[in-house]
Amino acid sequence: MSDSVSVSAMSNVAVGKAFNAIAKGLGRGDLDEILFNWNESQLNEDGDKIINYPGRDGRRSHGKEGGKVIIGKREFLTWLLSEAPFDEKVYGANIGSDPEWTALIRRAREAALSFAT
User: Fold this and answer.
1) What CA–CA distance (Å, rounded) separates 84 from 75?
2) What is the rounded distance in angstroms from the CA atom of residue 17 to the CA atom of residue 113?
3) I need a labelling partner for 73 at 20 to 30 A (CA). Which of 33, 45, 56, 81 fits?
4) Are residues 68 and 51 in contact, defined by beta-carbon separation less than 8 angstroms?
5) How many CB atoms lie within 10 A of CB 86?
6) What is the pLDDT of residue 42?
7) Nearest to 48 by CA among 79, 73, 78, 77
8) DSSP states along 49-109
9) Section 81-105 average pLDDT
């Protein structure tokens, strides 16, 4: 996607506002679906941070293989506003033709970019 907003040039406040616009525009369920498909992450209980529990299948795990990791919103926005959500090597052949996935990504992108206009 040739986005008019460069995520790397955005301030931390702008990144937060873009992420909040996505959360508000899509709702928690749709955003959690995108996050899970991106890197098996999810929103925290408050809905203001992206978290992941590495080492196991998304369950709370502790020790060497586990724990909670906070993932940056900038990293998520960079992925979202790129062509990566439609990478057939990652998401399967014809992912760009999947009407549900393309609509979900389109809505998320529109919400992210709407705060900047």
Assistant:
1) 12
2) 10
3) 56
4) yes
5) 17
6) 95
7) 73
8) SEEE-TTTTSS---STT---EEE-HHHHHHHHTSSGGG-HHHH-TTGGG-HHHHHHHHHHH
9) 95
Q: What is the CA radius of gyration of the chain?
A: 14
Cβ count near 39 (within 10 Å): 13
Domain ranges of the chain: 7-114
Q: Tokens standing for 12?
A: 């931390």
SS (H, E, C) 69-82: EEECHHHHHHHHCC
At 16, the amino acid letter reads G
Q: Parallel, antiparallel, or unpaired: how do β-strands 69-71 and 42-43 relate?
A: unpaired
Strands 50-52 and 69-71: antiparallel
Digit-coded pLDDT (tens) for 51-84: 998 765 545 555 555 678 899 999 999 999 999 9
Q: Tell me 43's DSSP state.
A: E
